[in-house]
Amino acid sequence: MTETATSAELSVCRSNIARPGAIAFTENSNAQRSLTMRQPFAALITAATLSIQPAQAEETNVQPNHPYVGMWVTDDKRVRHELLPNGRYVEARGHRERAYEGRYKVKGTHIEYWDDTGFAADGDFVDANTLHHGGMILRRK
């Protein structure tokens, strides 16, 4: 049997949500007792709360643990790697500004790349302004 609950009854039910699966008894205005299962109500409230939470970018406050963030370019400017502070990179080739994208990790002076298609590559920073990668020499811009 479904009955309309008063605001006092709802507040009693809400205050008992903390123990999922427990049973709460509430009285309606007619002094009849109704049995309420709190677990489905708690799940509904949880789902509603999660659905209204703002999505937060995971990569917004990441700080690099290396000095190589920035743009790296071949001498002919045909290949450009932008190492982002969040561990992602964007590689441009010729007129294709976003030819490849993926993640990277720097350990010491060695860099490893994993593009979003699954291809992996690596390179070495030979000094603060020179990167050797895949037979190419890229310089800090």
From TrEMBL:
It holds the Pfam family Atu4866. InterPro entries: Atu4866-like_sf, Uncharacterised_Atu4866. It comes from the Bacteria. This is Protein Atu4866. It comes from Rhizobium halophytocola.
